[in-house]
Amino acid sequence: MKGIEAGNNLLLGVTGGIAAYKSVELARLFRKAGVNVRVVMTEAATRFVGPMSFQAVTGQPVRVRLFDEEHEAAMGHIELARWADHLLIAPASADFLARMAHGLGDDLLSTLCLATAAPVTVAPAMNIHMWSHPATRANLSLLTERGVQVLGPASGEQACGDTGPGRMLEAAEIVSGLMYPRKTGLFSGKRVLVTAGPTREAVDPVRFISNRSSGKMGFALAEAFAGQGAEVLLVAGPVKLDTPAGVRRIDVQSARQMHEAVFDNLQGVDVFAACAAVADYRPVSPSDQKIKKNAERMELTLVRNPDILADVAALENGPFTLGFAAETRALADNAGTKLAEKGVDMIAANLVGENLGFDVEQNALLVLWPGGEATLPVQDKKSLARELIGILAEHYQ
After folding, report:
1. Per residue in 253-264, pLDDT tens?
2. CATH number of the domain bearing residue 59
3. Which residues are catalytic?
4. 61: which residues sit within 8 A by CB, 6+ positions away?
5. Between the CA of residue 26 and those of 142, 247, 313, 318, 334, what are the distances in Å?
């Protein structure tokens, strides 16, 4: 997504939540950076901060109501939508994200979301339990699939007394994320596609085959690429992790869905990082009804899933391919075999098992490429991801 520059027109949408007070500082910082700012508030937002505060820092009248005779006589909401080079909604409440996801247009701000052709960014802010609710996760998934950029939220103490993810990013962080994205770094101007997490292969409507992957390494990798200037798309299996700032995300369930999502979005990709722990097999005929526990034994016939990494690596003029190998023994030998057999450019291998690899905060990697290798010692996964893409950058270039 193209960043905001001095001289651009920013439409700042403010929804109802205690974090609305931060948006006054946000408007001030954008104005200080030379951005033209106009503010649209929901009725609920005015309960937390007054329109006059925004008018004072922007020098522009603040719009609240859709049915405003003074402005709507000239189709003011369409004029605003056309004026904007970027639409930022901060804070974006759980309610407003739901209305965006389902295309409602029952107030001025939601109508602008439908009417604008400009890039849209949301900075969520809500209680930790609202943030983690499946409905909110599904709504965010819909929005990111449509190209909406999500910044945050941050973790910490909340106004309600809970602690955890849900706080709106600080104003300076949002300005930095939007005004200075992807301009410098090892992967500046490059497109990167990362897969992360497990897949679930249905046995029946309530049971599935899966694995212990938490997705933490893949998400750390996506964050590291974005931090080095890449335009990142993250295709994620079923995990409970927040989308890294500046990363677009598509959620999937099965290996075949992940394969489809990857190939639907592979055009123009420079680097493909296959960090997901994709199920090798799936039930050949999943039941459409819950299988009852009647017999003493049950046989389940499995069929191989498509090999996403090998299929990408086999493409003519395809992207640079980074694969991952999770092994329980003979790490170097098994990873070397995978490197050769799949025809990938680089393999990052790690041991898994009791307190190793899956669902832990730290990891270690053996990185292999044709004619060379490197060992990355045990460290937190975010640090590990940054070191890994440093090695990858040398060989990609």
Report:
1. 999 999 999 999
2. 3.40.50.1950
3. 160
4. 55
5. 26, 21, 44, 41, 51
